[in-house]
Amino acid sequence: MRSFMEKIPTKETLAKLITVTVLNKAGNKIDEFQMRGGTNLWVFIRKRGLPIGSACSGVGVCGACHLKVTEITPQSISIQNEFEKETLIKNQKPTDERLACLCRISGDIIIQADYW
Ligand code: FES
To answer: Which InterPro entries does this chain map to (predicted)?
Structure first.
């Protein structure tokens, strides 16, 4: 069980198709895919077959799934809570990055990882 409250996606969010653009470390586009609004980003990246850190199996404590996320539309990603911020700090990751396993997506985004 997760130690934070996730906001339940609205019916409108669930009905949306979200475009996720994937950049490698150098900033080159390596993939683009669509996912249903409200989906957990880490789960979808794994389903897509992209490698992503997962030492804690997506419970938000290892920091391995950290990504840089750019919102194409405002409020495209769930708000970073204290738990996520603490995990980033404890694992010496930039606090302006996000943990994919703790993010739900509701609008188009660009993601970039230093290991792609
Ligand atoms: S998989 Fe461990 S923090 Fe996301």
So the answer is: 2Fe-2S_ferredoxin-like_sf (IPR036010), 2Fe-2S_ferredoxin-type (IPR001041), Beta-grasp_dom_sf (IPR012675)
